Amino acid sequence: AADVVPKAPEDPLFGLMTAYRADTFEKKVDLGIGAYRDDNAKPWVLPVVKKADAVLRSDPNLDHEYLPIAGLQQFTSASQKLILGKNSPAISEKRVASLQTISGTGAVHLGALFLKKFYRPGQTSSVYFSSPTWANHNQIFSNVNLPITTYPYFSAKTRGLDFDGMLSSIKSAPEGSIILLHACAHNPTGVDPTQDQWKQVAEVMKARNLFPFFDCAYQGFASGDLARDGWAISYFVEQGFELVVAQSYAKNFGLYGERAGCFHFVAAPASDATDVATRVASQLAILQRSEISNPPAYGARIASLVLNDPALFAMWEEDLRTMSSRIIEMRKALRSKLEELGTPGTWNHITDQIGMFSFTGLTEAQVQKLRADSHIYMTKNGRVSMAGINTNNVQYVAEAINKIVRA
Ligand code: LMR
């Protein structure tokens, strides 16, 4: 192996995190990795998570046994209800197969692996990504050898959605193609289709017989409203699609390192749909067993306690509003400071975009200069993690951006 293994580059995002941590400059600002921070730039353990954690720890019967291959049953069934809506016909008709996964990444991977093995055997189907998309999508789907294509998504001109480009590209995708869609709070752009635009996408996808693969990492975190952030998925299910969903609890529960997530396969309504879901679940279990045997328990136990208890659930919704509203406040603050400074260009996209990120339009050279001159860290595509901005550093960040844009 010594001669054939070339050195791979460091992961850009985790490399950025390491570089930020090593920086000793007092006013350094981390706008890199998508992880929530409070107004003091500190990680925030959700009060509801602290509470659930205390309940778990005080249980004398808590042990460290294996979970089943498909994960904690109370967790996966509550996750179905959360993402599809508790009155979803897909659930009552028993046509959903759900497995607990290693957070959203594990869910995307399990879905990719499953599709590679079972989707349209004998035919080559490509997966379509938005351009741009979360960097890891490329690696995950390449690793299972699914061909990748992209559809236009972000308009550099408006810093909003290139809806015409998106729709016409999806329209011309070969029948059976897999279309990867970010359910809400698109990463990296922060730009989402409107409900009316989602309806048009669904219509085209149905007419062209395309397969929706939803990645949902920000339900409730984006707008503070779980149903609203999950709307696109429920709508597609209502339209009768066969589809899959990767669901992460990293951001909306702040359970980043606990790796709690879920993968769902929803069979299209049909007389044999329950049977389809059962067969799919059995194959997913084999894939899961060979990859991770069974998922980690701790994060799923915490989420499960909260999802299944009405009082804790209400507390969680409160915590979601705390996070989403702080981010929305910081969007307003950053925009208004840039406008006060008369920074060349328009800055409305900062408040128009939603969720963890803003796609600022800063160039790679500007990003590098911000890091060198002001110790402000962001990904080279100009993506800013809004959670890194707070009342103490927003002025500093705005002034630094102002200076770089004018240079
Ligand atoms: C991000 O894009 O910053 C997050 O989703 C973290 C990750 O795993 O890439």
Automatic annotation (TrEMBL):
The keyword Transferase applies. GO terms for molecular function: L-aspartate:2-oxoglutarate aminotransferase activity; pyridoxal phosphate binding. Its cofactor is pyridoxal 5'-phosphate. It comes from the Eukaryota. Residues 27-401 form the Aminotransferase class I/classII large domain. Signal peptide: none annotated. In eukaryotes there are cytoplasmic, mitochondrial and chloroplastic isozymes. Its EC number is 2.6.1.1. Gene3D superfamilies: Aspartate Aminotransferase, domain 1, Type I PLP-dependent aspartate aminotransferase-like (Major domain). It is an enzyme of class 2 (transferase). GO terms for biological process: aspartate biosynthetic process. GO terms for cellular component: cytosol. The keyword Transferase applies. Belongs to the class-I pyridoxal-phosphate-dependent aminotransferase family. Homodimer. It comes from Rhizodiscina lignyota. It catalyses: L-aspartate + 2-oxoglutarate = oxaloacetate + L-glutamate. Keywords: Aminotransferase, Pyridoxal phosphate, Transferase. SUPFAM superfamilies: PLP-dependent transferases. This is Aspartate aminotransferase. InterPro entries: Aminotransferase_I/II_large (IPR004839), Asp_trans (IPR000796), NHTrfase_class1_PyrdxlP-BS (IPR004838), PyrdxlP-dep_Trfase (IPR015424), PyrdxlP-dep_Trfase_major (IPR015421), PyrdxlP-dep_Trfase_small (IPR015422).
